[in-house]
Amino acid sequence: MCGRFALGTPIDEIAAAIQSEPLSPLTPFTPSWNVAPTQWVPVITENGLQQRSKAPRHMRLMRWGLRPSWSKPSTHEPNNARAETVDQKPMFRHAWSHRRCIVPADGWYEWMTTVQGKVPWYHHRINGGQCWLGGIWESWSSPEGDHVESFALLTVEANEDVREVHHRMPLLLEEHQVASYLAGDDVRAQPQNLIVDRHVVSRTVNSSGEDGAHLIEAVPTLW
Length: 223
What we know:
Layout lengths: L3 E4 L3 H7 L14 E4 L4 E8 L6 E11 L15 E3 L10 H6 L1 E6 L1 E8 L2 E9 L5 E11 L5 E11 L10 E3 L1 E2 L4 H5 L13 E5 L23
Parallel strand pairs: 4-10, 5-10
Antiparallel strand pairs: 1-2, 1-7, 3-4, 6-9, 7-8, 8-13, 9-10, 9-12, 10-11
C-alpha cells in the first residue's frame, strides 16, 4: 500500500524530465514531504478534460482518493488499487481502460509493525531519481456544479527491497515505461530488485499536519 509520499522536487523540473507540460501558473503547488490522501497534487496524464479525449502530455492537480463519476461523496474513497485486479473491479476497471496517470514522487512512506509500535520508513530510488508511480483517475461532478478530478495509486507485491517493511508497494515505473503505460499498455509488473533504498524516519511524519524536508531524514534505530 501507499499512504503518504514526498514531493519536494520543483514541478517544472519534473515536467521537463518527463517531457510534460507543467502545471498552469494559475494552479500552483507547494512542495510537500508529507502528501496524504484527500490532498491535491500534480499528476501527469495524456487525457483531456472530457476523460476519453486525448491531449498532449501535461500536469494538472487532482485529489488523492478516487471518486468515480457514478458514485456519491464518501469518507472511504480509495487511495490505492491493487494492480492485479484493477481490470476486474467495477470501481477501477473503467479508469484503468481509459484514464491513466503518472504520479511523481521523491519517495514514499511505509510503516513497519514492531514491538515498539509502528515505525515509519522512507523509501526512495537508490540512484536518487524521481519515482514515477502508476495511477488511474476519474472525473466527478455534482448536480450543483461541483467538480472533482481524483486519482488512486496502483500497488503491487513488494519486491525484495521493500518486503521486510511491507508486503505491498506502489507500482514503480521506469522512465522508459511511462509512455506505454499512459498509452494503455498492460504495464503492472513488480519492479525489479536493487532499485529502492529505505531508512527509518521520525514518527513526526505520522501527523499529516507536519511538513518539511526534515521528515525524510534518517533517524537512529536499534536495528
